[in-house]
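Query structure, 345 tokens:
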């Protein structure tokens, strides 16, 4: 199966550049896998599509401001770093731009902070090892001068504006560590959460820190040769117990986002059960994979030829999902991080 089999045409104007004024005003396409059908709806009506036997599983990871802008110490040339993960101490892997000018030994300075950085190693695809030094905590400096790591398809002048610091974050985020938001969760509001609670619908939280692997381009033509990089996740005993009880009682496990789905399936210990654990989610999901835990999936619309679209096609069927995407394009849904969503049942 080729990555080109997961392509669809999307007009640029359908790529959402701004969040809506109200999070829960997003449209939601409700997709029925069994009937091979869909209907147009609104996210605010999500509780109407769930029952008290179901459990909604949320990824509570919190995005940190991983984009840093600095200048080369000698030339003064502008440098941009996207921090990917801490390697050891104050050394990070970072996606750099322009990468070709940052050789080992290059030094970077940052305006507005007593922070220095040196390139101490190189990886492939523009990734460098960057060692930071500061009299302050590095995390504190990053939180103060960093910008929200919005995706490159958001191309407005004020990318990283103050509004993005709150809107590119779920309302229930509390575990710092992601470089990208679990975007299916961006639609939730306190009002929707209250409605879910009032209806007796269960909720459980897990943590999966979204890393570069989630949105790294699929460079292999044969999709089975691609591997999504491992990401750290944690599922508590309480969450595992609730999820397992839901399955045992005939309820549905509704994953909010592909990151949540990946964590749940990585934690499957036996058919339809999970085990509480912390570790690395190294699972890559292709068509043909048999889902053990996830019964329904709330997800935004994903990039063509991406590992996330491949995962969704594994859950709902490639041909059916591509037809569904064509409907969403025809109906002018908003796409990607700040866009609308679908509930696949």
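Result returned for the query:
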């Amino acid at each position: 199966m080729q990555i080109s089999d997961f392509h669809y045409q999307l007009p640029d104007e359908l790529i959402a550049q701004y969040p809506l004024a109200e999070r829960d005003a997003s449209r939601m396409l409700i997709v029925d896998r069994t009937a091979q059908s869909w209907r147009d709806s609104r996210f605010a009506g999500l509780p109407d599509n769930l029952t008290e036997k179901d459990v909604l599983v949320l990824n509570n990871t919190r995005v940190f401001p991983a984009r840093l802008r600095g200048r080369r110490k000698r030339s003064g040339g502008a440098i941009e770093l996207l921090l990917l993960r801490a390697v050891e101490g104050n050394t990070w892997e970072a996606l750099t731009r322009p990468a070709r000018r940052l050789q080992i030994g290059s030094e970077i300075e940052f305006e507005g902070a007593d922070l220095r950085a040196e390139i101490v190693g190189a990886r492939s695809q523009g990734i460098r090892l960057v060692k930071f030094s500061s009299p302050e905590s590095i995390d504190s400096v990053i939180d103060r001068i960093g910008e929200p790591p919005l995706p490159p398809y958001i191309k407005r002048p004020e990318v990283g504006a103050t509004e993005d610091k709150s809107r590119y974050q779920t309302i229930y985020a509390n575990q710092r560590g992601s470089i990208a938001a679990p975007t299916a969760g961006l639609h939730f509001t306190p009002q929707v959460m209250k409605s879910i609670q009032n209806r007796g619908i269960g909720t459980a939280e897990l943590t999966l820190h979204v890393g570069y692997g989630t949105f790294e381009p699929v460079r292999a033509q044969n999709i089975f040769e691609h591997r999504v990089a491992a990401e750290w996740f944690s599922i508590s005993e309480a969450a595992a117990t609730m999820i397992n009880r839901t399955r045992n009682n005939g309820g549905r496990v509704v994953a909010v986002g592909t990151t949540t789905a990946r964590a749940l399936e990585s934690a499957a210990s036996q058919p339809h059960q999970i085990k509480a654990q912390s570790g690395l989610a190294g699972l890559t999901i292709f068509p043909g994979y048999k889902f053990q835990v996830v019964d329904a999936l709330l997800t935004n619309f994903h990039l063509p030829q991406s590992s996330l679209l491949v995962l969704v096609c594994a859950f709902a069927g490639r041909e059916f999902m591509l037809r569904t995407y064509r409907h969403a394009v025809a109906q002018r849904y908003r796409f990607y991080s700040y866009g609308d969503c679908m509930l696949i049942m």
